[in-house]
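pasting for the record
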Amino acid sequence: MIENVHHLIKKLSPLMEEESEIFRELALFFGHGAKIETDREDLSKFLGRKRLYRIIRLAGASYKDCAYQLIDNYPEALESLGMLRYYKSPTSKIEWEEIEKAEIAIGGELTMNAYGWQPDAWTAFENSAPVTDAQNPYEMVALIAFDFGD
């Protein structure tokens, strides 16, 4: 399955290096292990022509805290063309209600701004590694695409 994702990324973005951080994160997001199945069509939308990519890693006391960090500290993220997000659980059990609170916070902010992300998708992964930051055990990773013009 992961080989198919790698092949698809290379097909859609032939110049993207497999060792790059964005390639690895896309392979994770669309690969095996996501608790919400991801749509491969979102990958083709995300890897559009003339795009720049950015990865934002956030850790907080809750998923909602991570969402507000994204909104407050990375306003450019709200101006992006597309955003893929995933949440990592601090334990092997995912707290769906907490993720929902984070997504509501992001959605609430987007109603105040122009909203046209293509794609806009999220998923979650169970964390199998021990939490390294007891103060901020919740994690969100945002993959963002920007247009770099003609």
